[in-house]
Design brief:
mainly alpha
Length: 73
């Protein structure tokens, strides 16, 4: 399995136009696959508003990792 950085480096080093075209087609076919629904966007906006008003809390990456490790949601 390649990391994202590995793949980026391989794409940059590639000069074969056919390979680049295939990669481009795969990426185009995945567009929209991970888009947010209007409901998700509304929920995120509500959370952002609560955080701005001091009623919600954001978490740093280390905090999120610690919570996941400890089984907290």
């Amino acid at each position: 399995m390649f990391t994202k950085l590995d793949l980026i480096e391989r794409i940059i080093a590639t000069t074969d136009e056919k390979i680049l075209e295939r990669v481009g087609k795969v990426l185009e076919s995945k567009e929209g696959e991970f888009t947010f629904t209007p409901e998700h966007l509304a929920m995120l906006e509500e959370r952002r508003d609560r955080r701005r008003q001091g009623r919600g809390k954001g978490y740093s990456l280390p905090e999120v990792k610690r919570m996941l490790k400890n089984g907290r949601k």
